[in-house]
Amino acid sequence: MAKNIYSRTIYFLCEDPNAAHPVIEQVEQQTGIAIPRMVADDLLLALQQHKHRILMIDHYDYAKIKSQLRDLPLANKSFETIVFNVSHRLTTDELLSFGHLKGLFYHKDNIEVIAKGCEEIINGENWLPRKVASQLLFHYRNVVDTHTSPATVDLTTREIQILRCLMTGSSNIQIAEDMFISEFTVKSHLQKIFKKLSVKNRVQAAAWAKQHMRP
């Protein structure tokens, strides 16, 4: 793939730019694209001078890097992010912490897949596993739907999400799985919903939702 089609640059956000980073080096070899190293202190300058940087982050080192970022969130709209070496399924909140997430690769993904994904991302595409894309779609769809709830009832985004699940007849276990929370948390939210709506059970809550909320 010709290099001259690339209009944006991937930067590897790391602790030590001089250390060996096998995955990054192999991606560079596979794609023929240079991936400059960047430390946390460089991000402020990047915000001021570069508007199209893509940050690539090793999830294994993310906790340490995040502590160095202080008040500079990755969620800044100037950055797109790629996360690799992910060892487990991330919660929706964890996914959102990466801001404009364009790509996610698990530790089991081979270099060919990561390299192909990076090529697509640098050309404006997304490279997200299906379940990750579903999580984000579910979240953003419900953020939009929040604005359709009655203004007279102070429901949180999560409570509205649960009400919509009730409208489709979902059980507590199904709601927990769909929302990536525990069944206990679902029950806790339901009790708050019942109190806010002045209803006694999930059937009455579902009936309220069908009357007041858009499907």
Automatic annotation (TrEMBL):
Pfam families: GerE (PF00196), VpsT-like_REC (PF21155). Residues 148-213 form the HTH luxR-type domain. SMART domains: HTH_LUXR. One of its GO terms (biological process) is regulation of DNA-templated transcription. PROSITE patterns: HTH_LUXR_2. Keywords: DNA-binding, Transcription, Transcription regulation. Gene3D superfamilies: 3.40.50.2300, Winged helix-like DNA-binding domain superfamily/Winged helix DNA-binding domain (1.10.10.10). GO terms for molecular function: DNA binding. This is DNA-binding response regulator. The lineage of its organism: Bacteria, Pseudomonadati, Pseudomonadota, Gammaproteobacteria, Vibrionales.
